[in-house]
Amino acid sequence: MAGTTVPEGTESAAAATPLSADAYAEIQQFYARHMQLLDAGEAEAWAATFTEDGSFAPPSLPEPIRGRAQLAAGVRRAAAELAEAGERHRHLLGTHAVDVGADGELLVRSYAQIIATPRNGQPRLHLMCVCEDVLVRRDGTLRVRERRVTRDDRG
Amino acid sequence: MAGTTVPEGTESAAAATPLSADAYAEIQQFYARHMQLLDAGEAEAWAATFTEDGSFAPPSLPEPIRGRAQLAAGVRRAAAELAEAGERHRHLLGTHAVDVGADGELLVRSYAQIIATPRNGQPRLHLMCVCEDVLVRRDGTLRVRERRVTRDDRG
Amino acid sequence: MAGTTVPEGTESAAAATPLSADAYAEIQQFYARHMQLLDAGEAEAWAATFTEDGSFAPPSLPEPIRGRAQLAAGVRRAAAELAEAGERHRHLLGTHAVDVGADGELLVRSYAQIIATPRNGQPRLHLMCVCEDVLVRRDGTLRVRERRVTRDDRG
């Protein structure tokens, strides 16, 4: 797999230095727990995966949600609405492309499928989104400092 | 990425120590082969990815399937039914959240999409499930000792 | 996780030696950027993730596309068609099972969901495919030397 050195005219994003396996595995595990907490309606535990002043700009709101109290309140509201509608939602995040910012923060751009399943009904792909996060380390663990989500059906 | 130490009131699941990159990559590769064997109808090879006495509690059965002979028989039956129906199924497993049990066994909770595609037809999201596995090491490789699958449209 | 040594009659594909975490994480990151470039219509940057003489055998064509100029032209054409149709496509690649070839090349078999979303419309699972790649290292980074894609609704 040494490969010959072929000069190339195009500097591609794919040629960016990949993160270490340790860093990439930590990011993948972070998102697995983060999304399982969200889908379980674990509002406080989920909010704690953001920094204290973490922000989340969802496509449905004109202004970002800021801080853990507001983040947790949003999850409780969504969980109540889903319970009333008799639906489960799953957030499937993948295709993580990661860059490292000037201060070591992780800039993670991911694809997100949101799957909705009504009780006794057929699952459906509810939304296809792109999720752009800034992750930082706090107390030895990754946290979301900023999140921006865009929907594929908009814009 | 050193980060400041912010005291926190909430101990979240996301703060659990992540697995090593080695362990996480091994789990991901285990599942990739395991699911590709299943979808290819490779009944014996798939059953061999369980322990000898491995059990699988699918949502469709009142009692778990136990042991490799029964596991393989289940795959052969499903493959025959799909061939007759002219459909392919793909099991897409991801969002793996992993805890380590008291004896070092791996407790893996994953999201599973089952995609069905009829010959000359449109693919559809057939089922959205949660897959909870206990993985152990046997002969130097991971195996499923117990599997429990729940469907999002039930319960 | 030491595990007892149980003798086994079946040598399964799952028992193949897994890749190192470093190699597997590099492959995952390669595909994340590769697919995000494709979906963004970044024709040249995407083509540069193939080797100079890289080939791509898509299900829609009788002959493989060969070389970066042709690969880039294909992306530009597809991007123009999607823009005219008012649709976005996302290529979600996962379930990577990797073998190592005789010359160290990586043989990667993956599942691919192609998600289509019309502007102001519902996302749908457009195609379910299997993607078989030969990856090699060139200039220190992975590149696709050969790609073969098959659709689940055919054959």
TrEMBL record, chains A, B, C:
Domain SnoaL-like residue range list: 21-148
Top-rank taxon, per record: Bacteria
InterPro entries: NTF2-like_dom_sf, SnoaL-like
This protein's name: SnoaL-like domain-containing protein
Organism (species): Streptomyces nigrescens
Biological classification of the source: Bacteria, Bacillati, Actinomycetota, Actinomycetes, Kitasatosporales
